[in-house]
Write a structure and sequence with these properties.
This protein is of the alpha+beta class. It folds into 2 domains: 54 residues, no CATH class; 32 residues, no CATH class. Helices cover 31% and strands 20% of the residues. It has a 3-stranded antiparallel beta sheet. The protein is elongated and about 50 Å long.
Amino acid sequence: SVDLLFPDVGELCGGSQREEDYAKLKNRIEELGMVEKAYQWYLDSRRWGGCVHSGFGLGFDRLMMYITGIDNIRDVQPYPRTYGEMEF
C-alpha cells in the first residue's frame, strides 16, 4: 500500500494492490476464524481468473486545501457534509 502525504494537509491519496494468491487468502480467512462460505464468491474469483489489480483514492477536498492554502477543510468542500443540511 501507499500513502501520499502533503505538508499541512496530511494524507492526500492512498492506494493498494489486492492480494491475488488464493492459498494466502484462504489461509488468512482460516487464521481469523472467518466463515469461508461467506467469502467463497471472492475466493472463486481469485481461483478462476482474476487478475492483479490495484486502486487509489484521492482526497479532492484536501487537494483543494493544498492548492488554495486554506487551513480548514470545511471551507473548500464543494457541498455541505453535515446531516440535515441538504434536502433530497
